[in-house]
Amino acid sequence: MTTRVLFVCLGNICRSPSAEGVFRSIAAQSAPELDLVIDSAGTSDWHVGAPPYGPMQQAARGRGYELAPLRARQFLRNDFDRFDLIIGMDRENVANIERLRPTGSNTPVKIFTDYAPDSGMDHVPDPYYTRDFDQTLDLVEAASRGLLTSLNR
Ligand code: 4NP
Q1: What residue's CA is closest to ligand 1, atom 12?
Q2: Which of 15, 20, 34, 47 could lock 40 by a disulfide, CB 3.0 to 4.6 Å apart?
Q3: Where are the domains of the chain?
Q4: 11 alpha carbon to ligand 1 midpoint, in Å?
């Protein structure tokens, strides 16, 4: 059975493309038996068509994740039908996602840090503002492992 997972942030150039790249890499390595479709999107249209933010790409590349081929797109109402699980990075993302939920859709929407309870964080801070790209990757790696565990059960 295929599981379709969509990661969502504001711009789709820092946190959610990192989540897409890191989760894809960790899943391929530690759970190759899972049949996954993995994508990311932004609630805004500010960076549509753009590659991930340069400093974010550099930090990810330093840990062996290549984000360069990814391109930003905007989250759409029909993503509720195209994915089995939608994961926002913070509460604002989740509120903006929920605003587009079609009547009758039961697709779960989570916050990524739900899968990293040991982090003590309730959201993934935006590194576009914090400039802490390593914090982003630490949280995204921990939550990716937690998400894999939850999908493997
Ligand atoms: P992201 O970060 O939501 O993690 O992609 C942002 C990137 C750009 C902007 C905001 C957040 N921006 O204002 O352009």
Answers
A1: 11
A2: 20
A3: 7-151
A4: 4
Does 11 contact ligand 1 (Cβ within 6 A)? yes
Pairing of strands 2-9, 85-88: parallel
Tell me the per-residue pLDDT of 6-60, one tens digit each, with 9 for 90 and over.
Answer: 999 999 999 999 999 999 999 999 999 999 999 999 999 999 999 999 999 999 9
Residue with tokens 């379709």: 4
Pocket-testing residue among 53, 91, 126, ligand 1, by greatest number of atoms within 8 A of Cβ: 126
d(CA 40, CA 69): 13
153: exposed, middle or buried (Cβ count in 10 Å: 0-12, 13-18, 19+)? exposed
CATH topology classification for 7-151: Rossmann fold (3.40.50)
Q: How close is the Cα of 42 to the center of ligand 1, in Å?
A: 9
CB of 40 sitting under 6 A from ligand 1: no
Contact 25, 19 (CB under 8 A): no
Q: What is the pTM of this model?
A: 0.98
15 lines ligand 1 (CB under 6 A): yes
